[in-house]
Amino acid sequence: MKKIVISGLALLAFFKIQAQTPKDSTGYKPTKLKIEEVNLVSSYYRQNGDNASVTGGIGSQKLTDIANVIDVTLVKYGKTGKKHTLDVEIGVDHYTSASSDRVDLQANTSASSSDIRVYPSLLYTAEQIDKGRSFAIGVGSSTEYDYQSFNGTAAFIQKTKDRNGEFTARFQAFLDQVKIIKPIELRQGQDDGGTEARNTFAGSLSYAQAINKNLQVSLTADYVQQTGYLSLPFHRVYLNDGTVSQENLPDTRTKIPIGGRLSYFLGDHLIVRAFYRFYTDDWDMQSHTAELELPVKITPFFSLTPFYRYYDQTRIKYFKAYGEHTAAEQYRTSNYDLSPFHSNFYGIGVRMAPENGLFGNPHWAMLEFRVGHYDRSTDLNANIASVNLKYKV
Amino acid sequence: MKNLFQLAILALVSFTGANCTSLKGYQKSKINDSEMTLAPRKVSKTELSFQSYREGSGGASSGKVGGGCGCN
């Protein structure tokens, strides 16, 4: 953890040196690739509950996660006025999990009780400013002890002639490998090991429109197709005859989420930000998500943002609680993340972006804190605190 | 539910006086305010991660729709 903080500070010191180079005030003359801004996002997450999937829907879900993400944006203008943007991001999470510790029921401090996840990504965007058109391509990965994911992204963005509307088409592919780690009592000798593939392909269409000088809205529709090993091998399912087996789910899943966003400037100090999403899939899950954020601008450079999010989902057709599945059922899970529930998430954010920068330094452009409390109707609750520090060159 | 949705749209349009106007650059000072962005805030990045792990659905939110185990 200390190493991550030191690395982050060293990186920022480097950016400060880079900031001494003269700036192009127009932004349209050819320039070399240079750093435009750096964002540091850190968070601390803690949850507790009593429906761990590893122990078949009973047992502690206590978990902590510390996440640190550094996101660097570099920009270059070409001779024809084309803007090239490169986003380089790396995230590192360290988490501890009481339920993962129960893959081996005999051990309370096995190797699976904590892990580190590393997720770098790279996104290149070429924008033809005069035509209001952009193309983007990106790659990324996510690595954990038992899970490896590689992803690719391609996007096309076209603004309308009057620059008040924007259409986006995006395609994402995730090629994942799940390490097969069975619950210890289901292992036969040294047969544990190997990996299974899980692939996700997602197409997304969205349109954003400024309606008037106070209001803008957007609509997004995704089509997501998953294939491969969609279960997790160490999730136990206890049957009604007292025996134990592994979670087993179909090898395809199609998801269709449709969402809308709205931002409305009400008067001079209050902004209404709203989000609604409807979701359906072919495992019979349907969900509704509604979120409201109300940034209050105390001054032009300081705002408070209370927020509230309501979420409701039906169960997938393969979910049953501990001891309720029968041996005759081909597909089964006792994962409460796929059970019927509703949840409330609420909290507040504070954003500071002084005109002359934080602490009088114009490069430290913005600091934002946010804390939230999450309550799920299955008695899972969580708290999260996050901070975002922006450095502009 | 359908009636409720229609009522919400009607209320929204009435409330905001939503008629599509072609805005000039100088009329976009509020639209371009950093708080007005039509995407999740950067500071909420990790909130979206935990929600995607703890809830069975996701997507249509300008974010990733896969990657990462969320095994716990």
Radius of gyration of chain B: 18 Å
SSE pattern of chain B, N- to C-terminal:
HH
Strand tally of chain A is 19
The helix tally of chain B amounts to 2
Keywords (chain B): Signal
Region (Disordered) (chain B): 53-72
Biased composition (Gly residues) (chain B): 56-72
Organism (chain B): Flavobacterium aurantiibacter
At a glance:
The complex is a heterodimer of chains A (393) and B (72). Chain A has 393 residues and is mainly beta.
Write the layout of secondary structure elements.
The complex is a heterodimer of chains A (393) and B (72).
Chain A (H helix, E strand, L loop, with lengths): L1 H17 L15 E15 L14 E15 L4 E16 L16 E15 L4 E12 L2 E13 L5 E15 L15 E18 L2 E14 L7 E3 L5 E3 L5 E15 L3 E12 L4 E8 L2 E4 L2 E12 L27 E12 L11 E13 L4 E12 L1
Antiparallel strand pairs in A: 1-2, 1-19, 2-3, 3-4, 4-5, 5-6, 6-7, 7-8, 8-9, 9-12, 10-11, 12-13, 13-14, 14-16, 15-16, 16-17, 17-18, 18-19
Chain B lengths: L1 H15 L28 H10 L18
